[in-house]
C-alpha cells in the first residue's frame, strides 16, 4: 500500500499538470520551484515592525495592565 501511495504522490506532484488557473501547464513541483526562485531573486524587505524584545514586551504588558 505504501509503495502505491508513494508512486501516486510522485506522479501527482511531478508529472501531471496542475489544474488551477494561471498555472500554464506546470506541475505542482515546477510551480513551487518557480515561486522559490522568484522569491529568492527579490530584494529582502525590512520587517513590518521591530522584533519583540524583553523590554518592549514588558512595556506592552505594563500598558495593558494600566488600561484594564
UniProtKB/TrEMBL annotation:
It comes from the Bacteria. Residues 40-68 are annotated as: Disordered. Residues 53-62 have a biased composition (Polar residues). This is Integrase core domain-containing protein. It comes from Stappia indica.
Amino acid at each position: 500500500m505504501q509503495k502505491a501511495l508513494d508512486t501516486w504522490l510522485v506522479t501527482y506532484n511531478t508529472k501531471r499538470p496542475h489544474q488551477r488557473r494561471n498555472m500554464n501547464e506546470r506541475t505542482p513541483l515546477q510551480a513551487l520551484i518557480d515561486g522559490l526562485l522568484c522569491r529568492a531573486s527579490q530584494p529582502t524587505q525590512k520587517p513590518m515592525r521591530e522584533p519583540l524584545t524583553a523590554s518592549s514586551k514588558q512595556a506592552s504588558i505594563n500598558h495593558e495592565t494600566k488600561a484594564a
